[in-house]
Batch of 2 targets.
Target 1
Amino acid sequence: MKNDYIAMTESALFDFLPDPGCREAKLIESMRYSLEAGGKRVRPRLVFEFNALCGGDPDAAAAAACAVEMIHTYSLIHDDLPCMDDDDLRRGKPSNHRVFGEDIALLAGDALQTMAFEILTCDKTAALMGDRACRLAANTLARYAGATGMVGGQVIDLMSENINAPIEVLREMDYKKTACLIKAACELGCISANATEAQLRAASEYAECIGVAFQIQDDILDRTSTDEELGKPVGSDCENSKSTYVSLLGVEKCRVLVDELTQKAIGALGAFDKDPRSLREFALELAARKN
Amino acid sequence: MKNDYIAMTESALFDFLPDPGCREAKLIESMRYSLEAGGKRVRPRLVFEFNALCGGDPDAAAAAACAVEMIHTYSLIHDDLPCMDDDDLRRGKPSNHRVFGEDIALLAGDALQTMAFEILTCDKTAALMGDRACRLAANTLARYAGATGMVGGQVIDLMSENINAPIEVLREMDYKKTACLIKAACELGCISANATEAQLRAASEYAECIGVAFQIQDDILDRTSTDEELGKPVGSDCENSKSTYVSLLGVEKCRVLVDELTQKAIGALGAFDKDPRSLREFALELAARKN
């Protein structure tokens, strides 16, 4: 599965980009630049895994995987802009606006978002999964990516930058910023296979658990690596300007939470007839990761 | 029709915005701010007119009209940002980022685009126009709004800012920047009424003609008002840093073109059984406008 889904996602991504011979060549080049700097393709993997678990067509999964990856990529381009995080680097390469300029980077992000919905609703995708599944997939992605989903999470993050946010704000922010797009990926895998309602609910529960666990694990890794660098005992108290799960709950409680969420995610996989081994292993891998 | 469609569009727009009591309240307020500053609602009007001409349900037209207006609004917010046109004012009011900051304005534009696709694909819209029409509407809007449509036109505009672009570049830029979203509006009016292929083609031709005529008329009005201010004979030669239809063809030839395109648009309306009086008058109004 592993190499297959990466190759299928990337080939579908680049097939869908317009001909670089057009007058907007610089825009297309900028979109391609960020799509190529693709990291581990966690979201496409989840789309393919759930699609396979529900007995779906891998070509339908490829269209859905592309759409989720395009939304993820657009959000990274806009996040790096000077008016947001002002990051010069993304995954070790110069960020999009450092290469193409802020104006083109802004428009490349905009066009990637549009393209996500174009690919989910085109005739080719409809021939693979049907009109109703296309509509549901587009709607699901829009709900999780929009004002009360991923973008909403970014706003909560901006608003709580200089305050010690309480745990419920942190939970809502992480749920929206990170878990929502993970949920979209898992649910689109099911939708692209015309799964049942019960399967969709199980995928959604799995996604929410690993999405939140992922974020807590990130906070643990940030904290323990900082402590090790500073030569302090791991998890010792320190003042942070911004709340994290670790600053609010401590390292030990966070580790317990990650384990509980991982077990709950694995439990949700019981709703599927096929063997969910690969998704079970994926949840365990995420919880055990060291970076 | 006129007051009805404005009231129906605005009520549907504001109904669809999330509860302002959420943690992302500032984002919702920023989205609402720009949606309220709505101008003449030309695109919603076209959606309603074509929907009625094809015998469609006005509630289906309202959903489609909202989606097109959300795309138009997001493009204006992003266009005004400092990295693009850096405009402090939009329709006489402070531009979105002047009120809410660049970060929130960027995200409000992003979330408005997402919401356009959410409204076109939600269960309520599907109950009004069917799964297939929802999918086609979302796909049509995405194609006209994206990398080879509206956003593509903005890129061509950026690339030709300091050069005397030849007529074919100007034509492609104006077609994409302006006419594409007009086409989306007219076609979505038809799609929301489950119109025939022939009706869809006729709406598309009407839209392209009035879209291009609109842009040429804009160039004429810019030039003649400038000449009048400067006390020069209307249409006399002057050096401009940027090509326009008038600088390339002269005022007289442009006036002939606007008339030809308007007559062609009106001709396309012959494909409809119902009386297209209102759309005929609209084409003539646009061609005769003085501002």
Note: Chain B has a mean pLDDT of 92.
Target 2
Amino acid sequence: MVLSRPRAIHLVTDMKLKNANFSFEIQAQQGRARAGVFHTPHGEILTPVFAPVGTQASVKAITPAQLNEMGASLILANTYHLFLRPGDDLVAEMGGLHSFMNWPRPILTDSGGFQVFSLADSRKIDQDGVTFKSHIDGSLQRLTPEKSIEIQENLGADIIMAFDECAPPDDRAYNQRATARTHAWAERCLAARKRPDQALFGIVQGGVFADLRQQSAEFIASLGFPGHAIGGLSVGETKEEMNAMLEVVEAVLPQDKPRYLMGVGAPVDLVNGVLRGVDIFDCVLPTRLARHNAALTRTRRLNLVNAAYARDEHPIDESCACYTCQHFSRAYLRHLIVAREMLSATLLSIHNLHTLLQLTRDMRQAILEGRFDQFADEFFQQLAASPDEAQREPADEPL
Amino acid sequence: MVLSRPRAIHLVTDMKLKNANFSFEIQAQQGRARAGVFHTPHGEILTPVFAPVGTQASVKAITPAQLNEMGASLILANTYHLFLRPGDDLVAEMGGLHSFMNWPRPILTDSGGFQVFSLADSRKIDQDGVTFKSHIDGSLQRLTPEKSIEIQENLGADIIMAFDECAPPDDRAYNQRATARTHAWAERCLAARKRPDQALFGIVQGGVFADLRQQSAEFIASLGFPGHAIGGLSVGETKEEMNAMLEVVEAVLPQDKPRYLMGVGAPVDLVNGVLRGVDIFDCVLPTRLARHNAALTRTRRLNLVNAAYARDEHPIDESCACYTCQHFSRAYLRHLIVAREMLSATLLSIHNLHTLLQLTRDMRQAILEGRFDQFADEFFQQLAASPDEAQREPADEPL
């Protein structure tokens, strides 16, 4: 793949892609797990897939060439952040996100909803939308379903998301109200969208309540989106609750469209998700852990600042094929961390992202070869035998 | 070139390289400018050459693969920093610097002298060496000529430096004392060294005083080092003073050995240096400027945070072949800077380092083709026509 210099590919040009279409083929299925191909105007996404997060149009500390080398296909960017800075109009003027950040493969933007509810100050929700203060400069801003779509059309990602409200998972009354609002907003997003070269996904909400999830999945599925997202999970509920909600939703959503589990990226959650019919995942976990000096393997989390690694000549993971594991020892990585060298974030991000990308590739291959049950069994056995827990996220940085 | 995983190549192995030798061939000469090849145990250095600085065994924000892609050959690491952290014994145990930081090409370590005089606290100099407090933890440390050599032998670079005292350039009495001490220490370094696979360079001092520089060059040249460094410049003196000192020293140092101008890296200084017989340069300037949001071209310095670049679709330098200029606009780089994304340091470092590496490659080619006079004339004409000054260093970070 040639990562070429950004050109002035303005919206006008993108609008010519009238015939660009999206299609999802399921190549193999085992239980509820599927291996598929999602075709987009910027190329194929082989599923199951993990999407690295480039919040502000940059996967933190990583170049597109490095993302390409680790085999990333789909990446995510955040509407809330790019709306506030540098502004979606500027990104459009620079030819859209693909050109701006030099990622010629598929991109997904979220709707901004989640960040408004987790990052912004003084937010006021009404039936029409949300007014809030920017976390950057305190300026008063407003997002509505129509505005979210307008921003996402300016950004120009291949997959865009309906504007939704994400409620605390265990507040039933709140989830009832938020789900109703999310459904009304989903219809408005569908009505507002203009670009035929973007696939708009609807989002299922409903917290940890099976009946709300079921109703939400039924309603969202009825609207005819080309793909569906499952929102409001991995936000405080238990693994068992997450798995139960995935099962409820899986039974309702159409089989022939891709399913995206938003904001979920621990290895165990990827395996649990694929077992329950999820095709697409994204999470800041691998790059955030990297900036907190932690290396992720499928079953462990290594805190590399630990003195035990000071003279450890082994790579993070002997079985890993990433650039970092092929070239650097734990001792060197620890030195970079202790000496506060920026390169530690880059090398650990490369490893952590590669770990999740390779896990989804291996799951895909196992499904294609009809041995995914065995793959999952082995994964959980290894996890149970692992000396530490690989599931918690560091909480000292906002999502 | 394969950048392979670090192996346990301990000192024992390195000591087998008894037949490794260093030789310097001058391939073409024009005036005092030379194009040469310096052969080292880790490969050839084509001169004139610029050496990126990896202070703490990492060229800040850059991977060895990226250094390789931009055509770096020689890189520098700092004895003072590595002695304090992670410790030269640890680096030796991990197989030496080449293996530790995964740089299989030539490495140069300085002696630690310059940093002791510029970074350390409460230093006390005596005839035998320097006692000082670590800038990291305040611990009391001592460096002597013998200790500097011992550390550098543990680190295992191809080119190592004699321990010297760097005085303020315009204090004549201090420079007389410091030069005398530097000369005595140079002899002790020669006597102390044991590894035959390292080339020990002597350092000429003498501030901005032609007679002291002349005496120092004569004395250091008499000791038979395989290469010579010119220290104590680019530390506050004028360009005219630097050039005058280079001319004094050039007339004395043997023609058939490489000359290294320490800590100098502004484009104009590289051209001035090559015009005066310098073969090797190093400087933190390109990577430091990158972390201060400045992009370097041969004749300009662009502060990319400037609002004028917000919607600028051009690369930093249309004529530049680096990864950054081939793939990213000024608008995107400015966005990364404003959004405080680490990737800005990486992309600007790639560009700035490439600019200096390419400048030395182009000077080398011009010398080989007998058109270096013309090259230098054109360079100075373009510099004179440039809208801003490309010579100042940001002063807000210690060397």
Note: Chain A touches chain B through 46 residues (CB under 8 Å).
